Amino acid sequence: MKYNWQQHDWPEFRYDESGLEDIFLEIAHRMGRVDGLLTSLSDTLQTETLIEIMVVEAIKTSEIEGEYLSRQDVMSSIRHNLGLDHDVDYIKDKRAEGAAKLMIDVREQFKEPLSEAMLFSWHETLMAGARRIKIGGWREHAEAMQVISGPFGKETVHYEAPPSSIVPDEMTRFITWFNSTAPNGANEIKKPALRSAIAHLYFETIHPFEDGNGRIGRAISEKALSQGVGRPILLSLSRTIEANKNDYYDALKEAQRSNKITPWLHYFVNAVLNAQIQAEEQIDFTLQKTKFFDRYEERMNERQLRVIRRMLENGIDGFEGGMSAKKYMSITKASKATATRDLQDLAEMGALLPTGEGRSRRYHVNL
């Protein structure tokens, strides 16, 4: 079986976008709504929403690849790089620091044409501290670049990328394509989600780096969306993908077997729409959280505030399983009696909603 890059029509992608018109319109409508909601917030809340979206994207884009980052390190690095926190403690997780900085670089450089130097810089940022791989340059190894799964000796090959020897030429052609299809380019693709979908597939097919291709490929998708709307896009595409990442891999695997990519476009454009819907939910969550603290913060003690903030850390994804007395004790180092009393107090004031009884008793933030 030949992969798409081995076929005579590579990279002349063919597709029928007629069945996507309603989704393109809905994405444009949602983007407008997000702009309106965001501008209605104070500067402080706008910044908080932006930071939360970037934190989620940095964490989820890594989770898709099986890496789990420290949320606190990602948050601290983003705030530091935005100039909001100058007294950041040493960040232990260099992967978190790199992922966070990449999020900011992609937003700040969205207007600039894509270039080899930009991609190398992104790779150096993302792979900071990595060992035994080439950083900041195209892969050069002679062995095949394969996407595989399964135990050693019984691996299943899902995809084999072009050989390293032709990667420089392929990437030169990809970068030319990306810039020529940008707004006002010679071959402009006017629908941002369409261009983003093709860009991601095109880049992932070449797989030009030894590691980090998925994360940089999603950054390229975000750059394409931002260029299309003329501002840094406010969404986390990786959150949507990670929620059903088997669907993502299946759609990508199928798309890499032909240059007829209509099914891939349907998958990816719907992912963009879902990510935009989640961005609206994130803004709404930020407003709810602000109103919550306005109502209850002065009535809480230091332990209660620490726990509530921990429960709200995961944003709209929530605190898994709710809060129990045992979890409360772990977070605050309080005794069981104090933990039980604090939780009951939070429930009585309306800040927490209790469910279950006895050892199954759990508490959820009442937004």
Which features would summarize this protein structure in a list?
two-stranded antiparallel ribbon, 367 residues, Arc Repressor Mutant, subunit A, two-stranded antiparallel sheet, mainly alpha, 2 domains, globular, Fic-like fold
Characterization of the model:
By secondary structure, the protein is mainly α. The chain folds into two domains: 4-285, Fic-like fold, CATH 1.10.3290; 300-365, Winged helix-like DNA-binding domain superfamily/Winged helix DNA-binding domain (Arc Repressor Mutant, subunit A, Orthogonal Bundle), CATH 1.10.10. The protein has 14 helices and four strands. Strands 1-2 form a two-stranded antiparallel ribbon. The protein has a two-stranded antiparallel ribbon with strand order 3-4. The mean pLDDT is 94.
Instruction: Give the CA-based shape.
Output: globular
The count of domains is: 2
Output the radius of gyration: 23 Å
CATH superfamily of the largest domain: Fido-like domain
Amount of helix: 55-70%
Tally of individual helices: 14
